[in-house]
Amino acid sequence: MKRLIFLLYLLPISLMAQEYHNSAPFKAIETKFKIDKRRVVWHLYSEQTFIGDTLHKLIVFPLEKKETTAYDAYIVRYNTQKQRIENYYIADNFWQNNEKQRIQGIEISKRTPEVKPKTFAYELRTFYSNLNRAQPIGSEQLLWLEPKGKKLKPIFIANALSYQGNITTGNNIPCKGETTEVRSIFTISAEKKCGYYIVQEQRNTQQINITTDDKGICTDKITDSKEDFLQWEYSRKNSQYTH
Prior knowledge:
The chain has helices at 2-9, 17-20, 24-33; strands at 46-50, 53-64, 70-79, 84-96, 102-108, 114-116, 119-120, 122-129, 137-148, 151-170, 173-193, 196-212, 218-235, 240-242. It is mainly beta. It is globular, with a radius of gyration of 20 Å. Mean pLDDT is 89; it is low at 1-14.
């Protein structure tokens, strides 16, 4: 149960987002792409600098669209020394909200995985949830982007986590129910395909029973667990990793 509450509420939301709209990087973005900052979803706005790279920061934010639940994606690599945009990725309707779950947070990882010799990618994680305690649904999408010319090219998109549950509370029962959780760990091997390192996925699927112990505390008990190992290889035809 603790794990479930953690997933529902520990999402990266910037409390300082409103300060960013007057920053030099955002003003450069606003000018170049003719953005209406009133449409920026500021509580999902995120910036990150990287270990070993003091010159750049990655900026990510969604842009609201009229009469739709989808968000356009703006992902920008900004040179802080030269104060200019070096690479970017813009995609219409990239983040999809629906009746089951909505985007709750975006996190830019400090790590930059090496996807081919001396070529590094940027890693983003997007969190979705319905924020429902009784019937929780959530997922985490992993995205790698590789700088190529003036663009950032998506090369790897995968689900890193998904969960769904049915939990009953009340009538003197603190909690009772079950959840299904699928969690993946991705590692880069030493093998290459089309010049890119092969990615190994260790996927763990668990059935979790939620009960109340003799002290009235909600506890998780794994009733079934399965491990799968998958291999992702870069495909020139699709211009990204597939398995």
